[in-house]
Design a protein that fits this description.
213 residues; alpha/beta; 21% strand
């Protein structure tokens, strides 16, 4: 995920608003205690997600892929007073860890965790979303996009994480692994979809920002 020179990345982080003490503790303890900490959004991306949420002021957010709950807290910061964030994850082993930090936040009551397969849960959601964050298994990115599309309001936004996939999307040799193939297919699918406008941002591991027309 290290696309920028280390000194540029350090300068960018130093020139970004600090994460809260709670987020700092969640960030640190995820890296110390949980496997695959590279899945954490972290300081820079977390502040980006928060900024986008504040800009939109959503009433309903859907997050696909909770991990340890860091990005949920960041996204929930911009919710309106009666807003709600629904976050979905299949990993029951991380639920208590995430909840232990949410419960320390005034945003706790705005976070609705759903345990299970997103493919099964999304069709049951009777909500219209202002903002969706896709950050789960990359092989299903296109399927998640299709499932949520009609549940996003016109003018609403979708964000998809890891769309640069550690730079593998621009390797000269055609990728043989299914994850990279899936990321490439998803990026092409969005780019060619006339129902949306999109921009691929090289933030951390790449975020595709999509606006539904």
């Amino acid at each position: 995920m290290d696309f920028l020179p280390a000194n540029i990345n350090a300068y960018a982080e130093a020139s970004t608003s600090s994460e809260s003490e709670l987020l700092y503790q969640l960030n640190r303890n995820t890296r110390a205690q949980i496997m695959a900490p590279r899945m954490l959004s972290g300081h820079m991306q977390g502040r980006f997600l928060s900024m986008i949420s504040w800009m939109i002021r959503p009433r309903r957010i859907l997050e696909i892929g909770t991990y340890t709950g860091y990005s949920a807290l960041c996204l929930a910061e911009g919710l309106v007073d009666d807003g709600l964030l629904i976050t979905i994850d299949h990993n029951e082993e991380l639920e208590d860890f995430a909840r232990s930090y949410w419960q320390k936040s005034p945003l706790n009551d705005k976070i609705d965790f759903r345990l299970g397969s997103a493919m099964d849960i999304i069709p049951t959601l009777n909500e219209t979303f202002d903002l969706v964050f896709i950050d789960a298994d990359k092989r299903n990115n296109s399927a998640y996009f299709d499932l949520i599309f009609d549940k996003v309001r016109p003018g609403g936004f979708m964000l998809a994480d890891n769309v640069l996939w550690s730079g593998k999307v621009v390797e000269l040799v055609k990728p043989s692994d299914l994850d990279t193939q899936s990321v490439l297919a998803f990026n092409e699918k969005v780019q060619n979809d006339s129902r949306v406008e999109n921009v691929l941002l090289p933030v951390r591991d790449g975020i595709m920002m999509i606006r539904k027309r």
